[in-house]
Specification:
It contains four helices and seven strands, in the order βααβββαβαββ. Helices cover about 30% and strands about 40% of the residues. By secondary structure, the protein is of the alpha+beta class. The termini are far apart. Helix 1 crosses helix 2. The chain binds coenzyme A.
Length: about 150
């Protein structure tokens, strides 16, 4: 069954939250925060046969975009869904003349780090004590568009 990538609507927020809350390594946000981002940022969802199976969300601050979260439901892992979500987000940022995309990720989150590296994000810094529960450092990644 093919997976479709589309912009999120307000009535996707409960399904987005359900996927996010089952992912311990994801950033955890409230429904209100996601609603706000659907309105003012970029939230893309992946859908298969009418079921939401993953999402990516980003904020644009001037020309700099920042990925806030990428989550795929565990039963859909390793089927290329995050790849498609991140590719589409990069395409949109490029189309809107962004100068680059930034993000932070837990040092231990190797699946996410490999995902970003595969999309040509490069490590640009580290923050030693950044996350809580458990305490962990962050790696900062950036993808720069050549203009
Ligand atoms: C990270 C995550 C989004 C990947 O989703 P996914 O749909 O399974 O990823 P894909 O199948 O599209 O894989 C894309 C690439 O990611 C990397 N990757 C994904 N899962 C991986 C794993 N378990 N181990 C190593 N690399 C992995 C690989 O580079 C992969 O490319 P490849 O298939 O050519 O090897 C998913 O594991 C997830 O939701 N994790 C929990 C939430 C989270 O940690 N989000 C990141 C917050 S910053």
């Amino acid at each position: 069954m093919p997976v479709a990538i589309r912009s999120a609507r307000l009535n996707d927020v409960l399904a987005i939250l359900a996927i996010e809350q089952r992912a311990p390594h994801a950033a955890h946000w409230t429904a209100e925060q996601y609603k706000k981002l659907v309105g003012s940022g970029v939230v893309l969802v992946a859908e298969e046969a009418g079921q939401l199976c993953g999402f990516v969300c980003a904020k644009a601050v001037a020309s700099e975009w920042e990925i806030e979260n990428v989550v795929v439901a565990a039963e859909f892992f390793r089927r290329g869904i995050a790849n498609e979500l991140v590719s589409e987000l990069i395409q949109r940022a490029a189309n809107e003349a962004a100068s680059g995309i930034l993000l932070e990720v837990r040092e231990s989150n190797l699946p996410a780090r490999r995902l970003y590296e595969k999309h040509a994000f490069r490590e640009v810094g580290r923050r030693r004590v950044y996350y809580r529960d458990p305490v962990e450092g962050a790696i900062l990644y950036a993808l720069r568009f050549d203009r």
